[in-house]
Write a structure and sequence with these properties.
Strand order of the largest sheet: 5-4-1-6-7
Largest sheet: 5 strands, parallel
Strand content: 5-15%
Structural class: alpha/beta
Number of helices: 10
Number of strands: 7
Radius of gyration: 18 Å
Helix content: 25-40%
Length: about 240
């Protein structure tokens, strides 16, 4: 059966929360010393990890972490604790950083994000975004000028279900009107996004590298599965 739809993950797939010296440079640890680049990089990795427990937390916060993509309050509670355990010196700094995390305009698109969405739309391929997330990601797409290229946005905190639960992938297929065997899921997590295979979707996993280091992985993924012909990026 030919592929008629492509579903994308958000974090680490279409967009990435990148280090930005304008809001990371002032970070300090509990002693008042600046957080070094390695510490900043690890902190962002923890905040955007798709699955697993990224730090050792007390049960109260671990439970909140497990529910973070279903409830914005749990998302805030658990991520502020991750920031504290990652060495952020003050509650005020943690609040500012958390605000950046949940601001979709702070996220950087991958170089081929807009291009792959436009090419899929031009080819008549249906597009969905399926994200384990606790905030509205659509402003990031609007800023990039591609909001209306996506047929359906399924965000876990709205849907009440998180990947890899099969219900979320089946719901996406139903909403855009394709059989699971007609859809390709592209994401950065074997555990979460790979769950689409259980309902019959094809799956392609990309590495959540810094955006400058991953210029055309999305184009390569759709070409590999025959959704679009192989081509070089426009950028």
């Amino acid at each position: 059966m030919s592929l008629r739809a492509v579903f994308f993950d958000y974090s680490g797939t279409l967009f990435r929360l990148e280090q930005d010296e304008t809001w990371l440079a002032g970070l300090t640890d509990g002693s008042g010393d600046p957080l070094n680049v390695e510490a900043q990089t690890e902190m962002l990795r923890r905040l955007t990890a798709p699955t697993g427990n990224v730090v050792r937390m007390e049960p109260e916060f671990r439970d909140a972490w497990d529910q973070r993509d279903l409830d914005p309050a749990m998302h805030r509670k658990s991520n502020l604790e991750v920031l504290r355990l990652s060495g952020v010196g003050t509650a005020e700094q943690a609040e500012v950083l958390y605000g950046r995390l949940i601001d979709p305009l702070s996220w950087t698109p991958y170089p081929d994000t807009a291009e792959v969405l436009r090419k899929l739309r031009d080819a008549g391929v249906l597009i969905g975004v399926i994200s384990n997330i606790a905030f509205d990601i659509r402003p990031a797409f609007a800023k990039l000028g591609v909001l209306d290229l996506v047929d359906e946005y399924l965000m876990s905190y709205v849907e009440g279900v998180i990947k890899p639960d099969p219900k979320l992938f089946l719901r996406a297929c139903e909403r855009i009107g394709v059989a699971p065997e007609e859809a390709l899921m592209i994401g950065d997590s074997e555990e979460a996004d790979g769950g689409a295979a259980a309902v019959g979707c094809a799956v392609s996993i990309v590495e959540p590298l810094p955006t400058a280091q991953r210029p055309d992985a999305l184009l390569a993924a759709v070409a590999e599965h025959g959704v679009l012909p192989a081509a070089t990026s426009e950028s």
